[in-house]
Design a protein that fits this description.
The protein is of the alpha+beta class. The protein is built from two helices and eight strands.
């Protein structure tokens, strides 16, 4: 009986975490419709990170932030969502974009208080609209300074990035 209860508790916790991620993504979708145009609805993905005392979500999406227009105005945007101790979520627009060269994020995962982003960027020899360098960034948020710092960058083997990410760029 105890293993069954433990299993049910783990499934419930997992479902709640997944629902909270969807809630954070939905919040960012509403926010993105206010601050951007030409939003790629298939690009939204999020991950929870932080400590027990400070919980956040990083949500990645693609669009024309500020509605600038033009062929190169679309890009990847990271939006930070803070979770209060009462479980309320709000956007932190003051948090600056990470200073990374990423063109498209394929996967987000967490490593405790850091966020790991897998994606693609331009190598020095790439042509326009044909990025080929697959990378992994490890980012850490400094909420008081309002910015992310890139604490690690690694090149990934070419088969690890999904073709959907590459198609969206081209």
């Amino acid at each position: 009986m105890r293993p069954l209860l433990l299993c049910a508790a783990l499934v419930t916790c997992s479902a709640t975490a997944s629902q909270d991620t969807v809630k954070a993504i939905d919040l960012v979708k509403n926010y993105s419709s206010l601050v951007a145009c030409s939003i790629n609805g298939d690009s939204f993905k999020g991950v929870k990170f932080g400590s027990d005392f400070e919980k956040y979500y990083m949500v990645y999406w693609e669009g024309d932030y500020g509605c600038s227009g033009g062929s190169s105005s679309m890009g990847g945007i990271f939006t930070t969502v803070r979770v209060t101790r009462f479980g309320d979520m709000y956007i932190m627009p003051e948090v600056k974009q990470p200073n990374i060269k990423l063109v498209c994020a394929d996967k987000l995962k967490t490593n405790g208080e850091s966020v790991i982003v897998n994606g693609i960027q331009y190598s020095p020899t790439d042509h326009q609209r044909s990025p080929s360098q697959q990378v992994q960034y490890t980012l850490t948020l400094d909420p008081h300074a309002g910015k992310f710092s890139s604490i690690d960058e690694n090149e990934l083997p070419s088969e690890q990035i999904s073709t959907a990410c590459v198609r969206r760029v081209r």
